[in-house]
Write the structure tokens for this entry.
Amino acid sequence: MSEEEVKSPNYWKSLGELARNDEYQKFVEREFPENATELTDKVSRRSFLRVMGASIALAGFAACRRPVQKILPYTKMPEDLVPGQPLYYASAMPFQDALVGIVVENHEGRPGKIEGNEMHPASKGNTSIFGQGAMLNMYDPDRSRYVRKDGNRSSMNAFASFAKDYFSDTDKNIAFVSEANSSPTYNNLKKKAMDKFSNARWITYEAFGEDNALEGTNIAFGKRLRAYNLYDKAKTIVAFDDDFLNPAGHKNSVENTKRFTDGRHVTSTDDEMNRFYAVESTFTLTGSNADNRLRIKSGEVELFLYALAAELSKSVNGLSAFNGYTNKFSDHEWIPVVAKELLENRGESILTVGRDHKPALHATAAVMNAALGNDGETVKYLDVPHIDDQNNNEAFAQLVDDLNNGDVDAVVMVGNNPAFTAPADLKFGDALSNADQVIHLAQYYNETSKLANWHINRAHFLEAWGDGYSYSGTRSVIQPQIEPLFSGVSEVEFLYTVLNGEQAKGYDLVQDTWKKYYPTNFKNQWEQTLNDGLAGGNQFSTASVNISRSFNSSASKFLKDAKPVPEGLELVIRADSTIFDGRYGNNGWLQELPKPMTKITWDNVALMSKKTADKLGVKQAGLGQAKVELVKITVDGTEITLPAWVQPGHADDSITITVGYGREGVGRVANKTGEDTYPVRTTSHMHFAEDISFEKTDEDYVVACTQDHNTMEGRSLLRYATMDKYREDPHFATYEGAYGSELPGMEFAKEHGKDRPQSIFNPIDEEEYPDYQPQWGMAIDLNACIGCGTCTIACQAENNIPVVGKREVSRGREMHWVRTDRYFDGDVNDPKALHQPVPCMQCELAPCEQVCPVAATTHSDDGMNQMTYNRCIGTRYCMNNCPYKVRRFNFFNFSQEFLTSGSDPEIVQMAMNPEVTIRFRGVMEKCTYCVQRVNRAKIYTDINTNGKTQKPADGTVKTACQQACPADAIFFGDLTDPESKVVQVKKDNRSYILLEELDTRPRTSYLAQLRNPNPQLA
Ligand code: SF4
């Protein structure tokens, strides 16, 4: 590779950085964004408490010296409990109808941290942002605390007597509207309900459910089957508007990520890597990991798919319906190139369509997969027993009609919130008023609960017994970690009461189900299942599929209906990357997590390309406190107002919005945050709308976006190359010329035959190791990292990191110890995007330590750059001198604010990680390599070896970010152990360190990223 190719990466994080105008220069020359350094104005308690929820609560309590609390010894010590030592219990986390195996760390009866279950196939030890955020939802003081009858406090006993009486008439016309739920216990009760009530119907309603995909396989194969993609087995992947790596885009995202990145592990130039093509409108997290990405309007994705099917039909059987079909994409340069590659990789490719596209696209992709021989190889079609036979979207619309006609006596809703999330034109909330009784189980007293005669407060999944299946069919028991904090009931307990008019314990109900699975030796097998967190084997059978005889006539209809997309703007409506359909809206961690592609927090916006913005006269976002224009979008006469945001890489003439915001009276974090966009999501515009109108307003709006915060601008930070270039020059990432001059220490290194300056992980000879061992280090593989941000939330959960709220974020005061930088490379309209997590580099020659006047930041024996909080006097010299911008300063005393609020201190206290100190106003903090985990492992090793060593075996210590990362992108271990995984990774020829020219000798290094674009399209 030429020096020039390495020396001149044109990476940029924002339009401001790309322009490098005066405003940008002024911005980066400031140590902090404007107003970030001043402590002149106090955060009002009211505004502080608004963002508080459980999140700030988590940040605060342990820092405070009040109130005095009594510590009493156990009079009867629970079995296995050693005070101070956490216990770990396996369980599973439901997300829609897919469980992910988890292990919960428990401190003296208080669940504290969620990790993935290594034995569980959908988790393999990792989690997603939703998995990490789930703990905060349980400790949320805004959760519903009691049963309500017509809005007034009531009780479960009263509800049971009501149910006994009301549901004794089994001829009543009852509609059950449930969230998707894979629990066999729940589905047994569902069956009992349908058997008991002669006029009952059951509708599974999810705003972002699986119905389109299931209808697709129904059309293709004559049965509603679930597509299960084995991304690790595919050489070529083509995704059509499918955000399958994003937890908000696919319910099996953790497993998808693991499989996808497994297909991209490269350790030598002989290795192969999968090739991923993305065709999409919005620049999604998944699309940002594509080797080739094509941005087109969402409405055109269907046409592109059919054009590709037509091209393939020339060479494979089964696609005759598309033979001879042409449209505007038939001559597109991608079509012959992608088709050729798919044909070369028959049986080793995957075509996948986004959840929200209509069934026709899913059917076509399924038939293309079958025609290419992928079925049974890279794609399995699972027969999932709990999936309904009906199209639930249609059944839901029918229910509303029947409600309006007065044909429904009672509506029983379990877990979902359709008054907020249902298609707006159905006016579900109004229709409910026609039912005699509306009953709703929910964790919050939300939009639907407020319309219900009976609201039943729901237990969190960490508080109740349950069970269910993973996406691919692994059966697990959900094991409670704590008694329900607010006496809520689980969905199985609720349904049981509806059916029987009396209460039952979830434990008994779940056990009754599992006794059928374990007819003999139940006790042992049950306990083994609880221990492992799963029952062995995959319980969903793989269907052997044949293309349906009626497919050709269906396809002819699709092609006839697929009209050219009209000129003008389209509106794309998506689930939000951090709060999904709104269910995580009251979760401060998730609200404050920068969205993966925009880095926006606390808001939803209208995303558009630069070209579209220019055409519409929309001004670009500013820097720091980004003041942007508010715009009005009207669909079928309904208007919403949102901040406009220019998203490089977005399709032209297309605007993307996300839902779940703009709520009222649900919780302090969610209330009045963002704009409610559900009003424009209607039955005819569930995913995208054409013929929208757009209008600018005269108003500005401040968006809290972190993309320009902590910038290390103008330096060669992120390195990547194509596979071809990597094969030409495997050492491209460490190319000396990348730094513009020879590195410090190179002369000495060369004298000793080394091509890199010496450091602890590149010693000139073994003598260079410090006497004290272990010595800790980290490596991050950018080729695996997908940019999901799970590491950020995992770190926040582990280390009691506060949420600071929108205003403080907009001032650059966010407290995340691991930020995930997102860079663009290339043309502003069609750039590549690259992700880079940046924690503290734990420099051996740390610039922060050299300037601290009170030695509050110093080195530990095992090589970590540590903070002594009670020495810190808050000069922030260290923050100023850190070239990596990874230090965070507590501008306010969140803990004191919280303590004097008088709100639920006990709950707050329970939520803390007792192994991590809390920081208070005026104190600097940063990543510690999870020193509490390191020290625990050292102490145990010391004990277990009778004091011979404190060097834990490799893999014993995992940092929180490493453990959570679904891509296995983070490696941590002892640098003095030549066999340790981290040392092996650091030996990779793609290994490099940030700002090596400064000779700070970071202990954290990176593996440069690789992309595998098709040279014919690059
Ligand atoms: S390193 Fe962080 S951002 Fe990257 S994939 Fe892992 S968890 Fe996601």
In short: DSSP finds 32 helices and 41 strands in the chain. The longest strand covers residues 693-705. Residues 59 and 653 are 43 Å apart (CA to CA).
